[in-house]
Amino acid sequence: MFGKKQQPQIDKEQLELIENAQRRIKQKKRLYIHFVTFLIGAIFLILANTVLGIGKDVQFFGIDWFVYAIFGWLFILVYHMFNVFVTHKFMGNDWEKQQLDKLVTKQKKRIASLQKTVETDHPIQENPIPVEEKKTTIVNGLTLIVAVGENNAIGKDNKLIWHLSDDLKRFKSLTNGHHIIMGRKTFEGFPKPLPNRTHIVISRQANYKVPDGVIVVNSLEDALDAAKNDKQPFVIGGGEIYKQAMPLADKIELTRVHQSFEADTFFPKVDSSIWKETSNTFHDKDDHHEYSFSFLTYEKK
Description:
Helix content: 40-55%
Strand content: 15-25%
Shape: elongated
Order of helices and strands: HEEHHEEEHEHEEHEHEEEE
Mean pLDDT: 84
Oligomer: single chain
Strand order of the largest sheet: 8-7-6-9-3-10-13-12
Number of domains: 2
Radius of gyration: 40 Å
CATH topology of the largest domain: Dihydrofolate Reductase, subunit A
């Protein structure tokens, strides 16, 4: 389970590039030192002959000896420059093209390997479903009802974060006499089933025990089928059920609590390009309400 920690490795091509760059820097540095030394040395030779009188009478073909020394040293400097910029031109165009070709080849191999892995793990269907058959079908009357904070927080530890009596009254008034669809954890947050409503609980647990009158299904699709005779079934939570149901719904009854809260469950963002706000009623905080809030209604465009 716990193996040795692997040391990061540098590709051979990358190592070659680094080594060549380092070598190039050293060559230019040595050339610069040589150039500076040549200038200082040339000045020293001239001063040694003209000021100090060293070899003052030494001449070859009528020319002072230090002139030959300077030109000889200059030849060595030019030869050094030739080696750096011509003979050892590691960073030239040909070398860059060679390195680029190596990197491109390596990336092509990696892409081919990734494609092979993807095709093995996720094979392409021989007869994929046509795009037009994948379009989401809106369920007429399906309504999401939820209370959320400014940061779309719904709840924490499977509990409501706030207690707003007018919001609870609104929830009761809107859902009374209808089917309410929820996840298992949302249902378990109730002390008992709510009166005058048909509860549909989505759970993957086998043989999940519920009170008489509560319907248990395995998916949102089955929940909607169970509520097909209701002209306005409501989805009441939790976060994942809201996410699945939002593309299918045609209305959202939302209570926006004007405060951000720490939470572990959130409501999906309401996309203004898909939903239009048709109602907005503001309630300020008072003795019975700790936070200000607004009742909002959204309908699908």
